[in-house]
Amino acid sequence: MRKFTTPVQSVQQLSINIHDARKAAGLSQEELANETGLSRSWINRLETGKITNPDFNDILSVYKVLHISDTIAYDAPEPESRNDKPVERTIAAHTQAIDQISKLTTPF
What we know:
Layout: H1 11-24, H2 29-36, H3 40-47, H4 56-66, H5 86-102
Helix pairs in contact: 2-3
């Protein structure tokens, strides 16, 4: 199976990506709804862009069923000296990024 990667820069792009991933998985909206616990009408409204501020947990449920990565990638500064502890700096950067994301009122 071929991997497909595309950036998500808007809810509209998210909607298109979820629709495409559902089709690629061979699932109907009803099947996706059953597997996520969401309604078929919610899936339809999401895929057609009628939901402009989807709940983050609902999106994660869809991602899980469709095997869409929820990984966050970002550039981290290089360690300034040999005395820096890169692993601890990376963990701190990840923790800070997660805290910032959780404070957002609009997840996408």
